[in-house]
TrEMBL record:
<dbReference type="Pfam" id="PF02771">
    <property type="entry name" value="Acyl-CoA_dh_N"/>
</dbReference>
<dbReference type="InterPro" id="IPR046373">
    <property type="entry name" value="Acyl-CoA_Oxase/DH_mid-dom_sf"/>
</dbReference>
<dbReference type="InterPro" id="IPR006089">
    <property type="entry name" value="Acyl-CoA_DH_CS"/>
</dbReference>
<feature type="domain" description="Acyl-CoA dehydrogenase/oxidase N-terminal">
    <location>
        <begin position="28"/>
        <end position="138"/>
    </location>
</feature>
<keyword id="KW-0274">FAD</keyword>
<dbReference type="Pfam" id="PF00441">
    <property type="entry name" value="Acyl-CoA_dh_1"/>
</dbReference>
<keyword id="KW-0560">Oxidoreductase</keyword>
<keyword id="KW-0285">Flavoprotein</keyword>
<dbReference type="InterPro" id="IPR009075">
    <property type="entry name" value="AcylCo_DH/oxidase_C"/>
</dbReference>
<dbReference type="InterPro" id="IPR036250">
    <property type="entry name" value="AcylCo_DH-like_C"/>
</dbReference>
<dbReference type="GO" id="GO:0003995">
    <property type="term" value="F:acyl-CoA dehydrogenase activity"/>
</dbReference>
<dbReference type="InterPro" id="IPR013786">
    <property type="entry name" value="AcylCoA_DH/ox_N"/>
</dbReference>
<dbReference type="GO" id="GO:0050660">
    <property type="term" value="F:flavin adenine dinucleotide binding"/>
</dbReference>
<dbReference type="GO" id="GO:0006635">
    <property type="term" value="P:fatty acid beta-oxidation"/>
</dbReference>
<dbReference type="InterPro" id="IPR045008">
    <property type="entry name" value="ACX4-like"/>
</dbReference>
<protein>
    <submittedName>
        <fullName>Glutaryl-CoA dehydrogenase</fullName>
    </submittedName>
</protein>
<dbReference type="Pfam" id="PF02770">
    <property type="entry name" value="Acyl-CoA_dh_M"/>
</dbReference>
Amino acid sequence: MTALLPEKTSVDERLAADFYDIESLLPPHERELLTHARAFMRTEVKPLVNEYWAKGEFPRELIGKFRDLGLAGVPYEGYGDPLPAGSNLLVGMLSMEYTRTDASSATFFGVHSGLAMYSIYRGGDQEQRDRWLPSMAALDTIGAFAMTEPLGGSDVAGGMRTTARRDGENWVLNGAKRWIGNATFADLVVVWARDEADGKVKGFVVEKGTPGFSPVKIENKIAFRIVENAEITLTDVKVPEANRLQRIDSFRDVAEILRATRSGVAWQALGVMLGAYELALGYAKERKQFGRPIARFQMVQDLLVKSLGNITACWGMLVQLARLQDAGVFRDEHSSLAKAFVTSRMREVVAWCREIFGGNGIVLDYDIARFFADAEAIYSFEGTREMNTLIVGKAVTGESAFV
C-alpha cells in the first residue's frame, strides 16, 4: 500500500476555522499527510457528495480512489506500510478532515479503519491480525461492525439478543443487527453475540456470502444518506472457531474498543463544525443585503464568532484527549465527555451557520443543509449524550445514576 503523496506537497493556507493554528502541533510529515487528505477530499469527493446524498447511495467508484489515498492503515503499527503508524492527534485530525467535506466519507473510514480494523487489531490473535489487517489497510477488504440491534442500543451490554452457540469447530449465530454502516457491500463484518453457554459477549468475523447472513439497506433516512446502513438478519449463520476473535473474553474488552472509537466520533463532530463554519463564513462575505455583504452585519458576526469559539474550545479538548491516548492513560469518561460535549456544541454551530444562509440554508445546493442534517446522526450514535453524561457523572461523583 502506498499513499500517493506528490513529490512536494505545499501546506494549504491555514483553515479559516483554525484560529489558533492548532494544525501546527503536528510534525511536518503528519501535517503533509493531512494536507494530502484535504486535497483528495476537495478534488475527488466534494464534487460527488450532494448527488449521492440526494440519491441515498454510497459512491462505490470512490473505493478505488480511497485505496490510492493509502491512509486506511495509519492507526496501526505494522499494518500501514510503508507509512509508520500515526499519532492519535493525526488520526483524529484525519477524521476531522474527512468530515469537514463529507460526514458519510468519514463514517466509511470510521467504520472500516476504526471499528472493524480496531476490533481485529485489539481482539484478534496474531494469526487473525496477519490474515485480515494487511488487506484491510490496503482497502482490498472492506470491513463493518455489527453491535447495535433493532431492540437494543444503549442497553446492548446487558440486553444483547443475538446469540452464539458452539457446535464442534463452528459457532452458530442467530439474531439481528441494525444501523450497520458499510454492511451492504462489506467483505467482512465483525458481529457481536452473546455466548449461550457462559452469557459473555464474543466477537465473530462473518465473511461476505456466508449462508444465513442477510443485510438489507435501511431507506428513507434524513441524515447520513450516503452511508449505507443495513439491518442484518442472522439465521443459523455458521462461523468457524478460527473466525472468533480470540482475545475478546467479555464486554469489558468490547468497551475498550468503543472507548477508542467514541473519541473518533468527537473528531467527526469537530469536522462538521469546521465545514459548516467555513461555508457560512464564505456565504456571509458573498451574500449582499441592503447593498452590502451580510458579513458586515453585527448579528451575523455574532453567530460566526460564537461558532468559532465552540470550534476552538472543542479542538483544544480533543488535542488533550489525543495526548492522553498516546500516553495510554485515557479512560472511558475522557472519551465520553468529549463525545457528549463536542456533539452538543456541534448542534449549536450547525444551527447558527444554517441560520446565516436564511432560506438558502435548506437547499442542498448550498451544502449547509447536508451538514445540518448529518449532525443529527453524529449526535446520536456511539452513545447518546445522556448515556455519555452518566458515564462522566459516575466518574466525578463515584455514584452510579444508571437505571
